[in-house]
Design brief:
- This protein is mainly alpha-helical.
- The chain has 2 domains: 1-75, no CATH class; 79-133.
- 50% of the residues lie in helices and 3% in strands.
- The protein has helices at 5-9, 28-36, 79-104, 107-133; strands spanning 13-14, 52-53.
- Strands 1-2 form a two-stranded antiparallel sheet.
- α3 runs antiparallel to α4.
């Protein structure tokens, strides 16, 4: 969330442009790139768009309820990539089943093999998902 224009006019926060035109101050893929990049940037193209607290601390002489604005990062798996990976595995197993059936003339064995491919690769994906979740 961004501080309202009243907070910027009162010189308690700063960001530019205020009010912000568009949705978010910086696209998520660019923000994560700069957050993970070990090299310093020679430009401050995006820095001015992020809200910064000026002067006093947010907790200095704070009332019972203190409001603050800043960056909130929602981490999690890329469910779109997982879905596409699953779709690719289904296509791969279907192709393997078709080849098995073509060369060995064994329809049941072909789809048994393709089900085994799906089970193994989905088990690996679930294992990596839980490993990531527990880190």
């Amino acid at each position: 969330a961004l501080p309202p224009k009243i907070e910027v006019d009162a010189k308690r926060y700063t960001y530019d442009p205020c009010p912000l035109v568009g949705g978010i101050p910086i696209p998520d893929h660019i923000f994560l790139h700069y957050m993970n990049c070990p090299n310093p940037s020679s430009k401050d193209a995006w820095l001015g768009r992020l809200p910064k607290k000026l002067d006093t601390s947010i907790t200095h002489n704070a009332p019972a309820v203190t409001y603050g604005w800043g960056v909130h990062i929602d981490e999690g798996p890329n469910y779109g990539a997982i879905a596409w990976m699953n779709f690719f595995v289904l296509l791969l197993s279907g192709a393997a089943a078709a080849l098995w059936n073509f060369y060995r003339k064994d329809f049941q064995g072909a789809f048994g093999f393709s089900c085994w491919i799906i089970a193994v690769l989905n088990s690996l994906m679930i294992g990596y998902f839980f490993r990531w979740k527990n880190e």
